[in-house]
Amino acid sequence: MITDEYDFKYESGYGTQGLKDDFITGYNNLAYRHQELGHITPYNIRIEFDYKIR
């Protein structure tokens, strides 16, 4: 089973790939702000696997 929470966390550091990482971090933080305002709701994800070892 895999579980996770789909949400956005504030990112303070910027990456090493320059402008590309800056845009990704900026859009992530924009989504984080919308989450804080209640426009985006985090939700839990649960994936269960059904398998047999033969």
Furnish the topology, listing elements before pairings:
Blueprint: E1 2-6, H1 19-36, E2 43-47
Antiparallel strand pairs: 1-2
Written account of the structure:
It is a single chain. With 54 residues, the protein is of the alpha+beta class. It is built from 1 helix and 2 strands, in the order E-H-E. It has one helix at 19-36; strands spanning 2-6, 43-47. The chain has a two-stranded antiparallel ribbon with strand order 1-2.
Order of helices and strands: EHE
The number of helical segments is 1
* Strand order in the sheet with the most strands: 1-2
State the low-pLDDT regions, or none.
Answer: none
Distance between the termini: 19 Å
Helix content: 25-40%
Radius of gyration: 16 Å
Strand content: 15-25%
Structural class: alpha+beta
What key phrases describe this protein's structure?
alpha+beta; flat; two-stranded antiparallel sheet; 2 strands; 54 residues
Summarize the structure.
With 54 residues, the chain is of the alpha+beta class.
